Amino acid sequence: MRELSKHLDAIGIRWKILTTILVAILSALVVGLVAIFLQLSSVGRASALEAIHVAHAIANTGHTEVLRNQGFLQNYVDSLGKLYERDIIIVDSHMKVVADTSLQGIGSHYIHQDVKATLQDGNPRTFIGPDATDPTMVRQVVVPLHDNPSDMRSSIIGAVIFEYTLVYEMLMAQARIASIWTGMLALLVAGFGFWLAGAMTDTIVKPLRRLQAGVAAVAAGDYTVRVHAGAADELGQLGHAFNEMAGELERNRTTLQQNMEKLADANTRLQEQYDKQRRSAEQIEFLAYHDPLTGLQNRAMFSIMLNQALATAGRHERMLAIFFIDLDRFKQINDTLGHDAGDALLKELARRLRATLRASDIVARLGGDEFVVLVPELKDEGHAKRVARKILSTISQPVTLQSQELRVTASVGVSLYPRDGKDEKNLMKFADVAMYQAKEAGKAGFAFYSEASNIYSFERLALESNLRRALENGELQIHYQAKKNFLTNEISGMEALTRWNHPDLGVISPMQFIPVAEETGLIVPIGRWVLRTACAQTMRWHAEGMTHLVVAVNLSPRQFADSRLLQDVREALQAVGMEGRMLELEITESMLMHNPSEARKTLEALKDMGVRIAIDDFGTGYSSLSTLKQLPVDTLKIDRSFIRNLDVDIEDRGLTEAIISMAKTLQLHLVAEGVETNVQAEFLRNQGCDDLQGYYFSRPLPADEFAAFVTSYRQER
Of 21, 267, 395, 636, which residue has the fewest beta carbons closer than 10 angstroms? Predict the structure, then answer.
């Protein structure tokens, strides 16, 4: 059964329907054939039954007296024969013919097995046999004749043999005709039914095939397919349902695609954000422990590695060394060639140090031009000396920057564990102290830490620490040095100079604290304070009637390169309502030379505010006439080194004359600084210098003394 079910499942629905209808038609045909057969059989039974009834009627009509009266009986049979048009034979109990529609048979014996059996058991029978006088086989029926017709249990005295072939054949002929028509009608109905089945099957199968093709297309991903729904029957409804389903799937797919695209976009943005955050995290982690310029470890990471090395050295009783490296004259390179060149130099030296030292040695950049090297597992002090010489040698190799070959030197300070200290703080401090000792010894060398070298380091550290607090504590002051115009003999302005009056150390020279401020970067906030304070003081003097004064403020290299310079100047002027023409900013030649294009942009922005520009210490740098012509400069200040020996040095007089001549050619205002004698003043006056500044006219004075000096000078004139 399972195998049959599998085979049936494999047959198409069309053939299933056709097979079912064909079976039904064949079943109908079989039923028709059975009906024909039964009809034909019933014809035989009907004719036989009719013959039996006639025979019984004859038998019941006859009685013993009639049977014994042969003449009467023959007449009776003849009349019946004419009535029924059939052969009728009556025999006695010995099967002797006593009456017959055919007179030839009277008196003969009708010998037949069925007749004999009926005479014996009294049961009527039909049979096919020859007539008594005719050998032709005919259909006959035999019924018994009882002595008492009303009593079937009375004795049998004979039998009536009734021939019904004619009736049978007549009925059979009619039955055959009916059977033929029945068969033809059945075949016609079957053919029509088969045709109708095929047509109906197509109406079912074709929509199903269209649905099947549609389902296959949808399964393949084509949700745009639609099927012809056709009639409004169940298949049509199924087609409409399929089309609605396909439309819904198409809409869902469109929505899904849109959502997928949105999800993909969101995922892309999320991935980009994640990658960005990951890169940021990696960058933050890297920057937390590495120097962004050189890629070396920074101070924080070096501290971690140093403490780990100290712990290891302590357990195994080993030596280690710290080498504190500071480049010599790096600031000059930075100021001359620019910060880009300085950065390139630092990266190259970092690469050299990393390549020169062992993989186990640790190189870090502490900031600026300061590097530090940790050498663990040091053998002895001689080993440390060899490492120091190797460091100095690799740094001193030529470096090409901006098509110029430079040779850089460094000063190296060395501290040893455990001789000089056993913790990070002391070892780093002592290596720094030793580095300053190396610089004091002439630079381009190395020095090991010693107690003697510690004294200078403490003084410098104390100076730096006190300087950081000086601005907050109000220890810094501004002194003003007057400038006099040769032509009018009027005080034309003043230069603001910073002074430091420490509560414990007393007055500290600018030559001491200005370099420290420049190196540490403190010069920027100090310069910002000087600028604001000088502008505010100038406006107070203007309010007191000294409206002709122009204040000059020096800009340090770091301050000039600071991105906030323009904002600082603008805010200082706006804070007190001061016009830009009342402020003159002094810069050095070296500040202009390392990046002339950027310097020009800064100067032009300052000139847009109305601020005057002065070149300080002119003659000591490398600026040329062509460079000065391209820059928006108002004033040149002749350096005091040329003024100092004017009365005795012919060469200085010649250089000063050349500077004055060049300034006149460029139509620049000229100021001579450091004038201390009448001879110097007269020479400058005769050469056409515009202003003088120096102790010959006035020393730098605090604000209140300067105001008194100006008032007194004006009154004396």
Answer: 267
Exposed e or buried b per residue across 193-224, where buried means at least 16 C-beta atoms within 10 angstroms of its C-beta: beeebeeebeebbebbebbeebeebbeeeebe
Q: What is the mean pLDDT of residues 607-632?
A: 76
Residue from 463, 294, 456, 446 nearest 367 by CA:
294
How far CA 68 is from CA of 73, 94, 101, in Å, comes to: 8, 14, 17
Residues 356, 406: contact at Cβ < 8 Å? no
In angstroms, how far is CA 612 from the centroid of its own chain? 55
Query: Dihedrals φ, ψ of 625, to 5°?
Result: -60, -40
- 523 and 558 in contact (C-beta within 8 Å)? yes
Q: Tokens in use for 536?
A: 């505010």
Mean pLDDT of 549-564: 90
Q: Are 449 and 420 in contact (CB under 8 A)?
A: yes
Helical spans, DSSP H, in 90-164: 113-121
**What is the Cα–Cα distance from 23 to 20, expressed in whole angstroms?**
5
Q: With 50 as the cut, is the pLDDT of residue 582 above it?
A: yes
Q: Which residues contact 93 (CB under 8 A, 6 or more apart)?
A: 119, 156, 157, 158
Sign of CA dihedral 657, 663, 668, 672: negative
Q: What is the pLDDT of residues 111-140, one digit of tens each?
A: 788 888 888 888 888 888 776 555 677 778
246-259 burial, b at 16+ Cβ within 10 Å, e below that, comes to beeebeeeeeeeee
Q: How many CA atoms lie within 13 A of 133 on its CB side?
A: 15
Domains of the chain in sequence order: 13-173 (3.30.450.20), 299-449 (3.30.70.270), 466-716 (3.20.20.450)
* C-alpha–C-alpha distance, residues 602 and 144, integer Å: 156
Radius of gyration (Cα) for the chain, nearest Å? 70
pLDDT at 604: 93
Q: How far is CA 228 from CA 201, 233, 236, 237, 242, in A?
A: 17, 13, 8, 11, 10
Q: What is the pLDDT of residues 413-436, one digit of tens each?
A: 999 999 988 899 989 988 988 888
415 membership: H or E segment, kind and range? strand 410-417
pLDDT tens-digit readout, 459-479: 666 777 788 888 888 899 999
Mean pLDDT score, 335-352: 85
- Residue 492 token pair: 């034309």
- Kindly state the tokens that stand for 395: 């740094």
Q: How confident is the model at residue 622 (pLDDT cuts 50, 70, 90)?
A: very low
CA distance 698 to 534: 18
CA distance 362 to 304: 11
At residue 444, the pLDDT reads 80
CB contact at 8 A, 575 and 535 = yes
Residue with tokens 């006190």: 466
Q: Is the pLDDT of residue 62 over 60?
A: no
Query: Checking phi first, is residue 710 left (phi over 0); if not, alpha (psi -120 to 50) or beta?
Result: alpha
- At 690-715, the pLDDT tens digits run 999 999 999 999 999 999 999 999 88
Q: Is the pLDDT of residue 5 over 70?
A: no
Residue type, 275: D
- Using an 8 Å Cβ cutoff, are 536 and 495 in contact? no
Cα torsion angle, 287, 293, 295, 297, sign: negative
Number of H helices, E strands in the chain: 24, 22
Least confident residue range of 166-170, 432-436, 614-618: 166-170
